[in-house]
Prior knowledge:
The protein is of the alpha/beta class and 232 residues long. Helix content is 46%, strand content 22%. The protein has one domain (3-203): 2-enoyl-CoA Hydratase, Chain A, domain 1, CATH 3.90.226.
Amino acid sequence: MDWHAVADGLFDRGHDIVAVDDLLSGTGHCGDTAFAVVGSTNHAEIGVELTLAMAKRVVATMRDHPGRPILFLVDTQGQRLRHRDELLGIHRYMAHLAQCVELARARGHRVLALVYDQALSGGFLASGMMADLCAALPHAEIRVMNLPAMARVTRLPEERLRALAATSPVFAPGAENYAQMGAIDALWAGDLATHLMAALRDAPTTDTRRDVGRARGGRKLAAAIAERAASE
């Protein structure tokens, strides 16, 4: 989905979001609340430059607008798989972005995320998965690895993985399956501005994804095993 339409739906009082190459940045106004917006478009590959640019936007928000909520708009095909980025330490850049998000949260910024198109693997981890609440549009494509690639890695027949995906959201791509696992808090359809303000009001202050996944039947063991490990 085009990011302009998403931004227009989210911010009923207008926005000044711009795209510079694959980076989205700007300010959006919903009701009386201003949001710092940072994200990606064009199914962006998240390389060292884009990761650093997103981190700079988070730092600038902390410096110039203390306490302002931050919204990540997510559209990425994953981290850039190039030898250059690996040599430059792409994992360190992503860790830096994650640390900036965590610092912003510690300083009183609520952090929300919306997957409006696609979200794959490491390009999603340091932004959307770091948010207090991560939502998705119903049509969004979310996955860690597609089934043919998973078959190559696990050496299991693709037909077997497709059968597993039919009964277990852990193996299946798609926003609905990730919502069932608790990785996506909610699917937003209809009035995006209303969803945004409700998320700002209701976003949890602790990580509840294991419990949500258990309640929705998508991750039946994660919470129980964590509880057992903590008690023993």
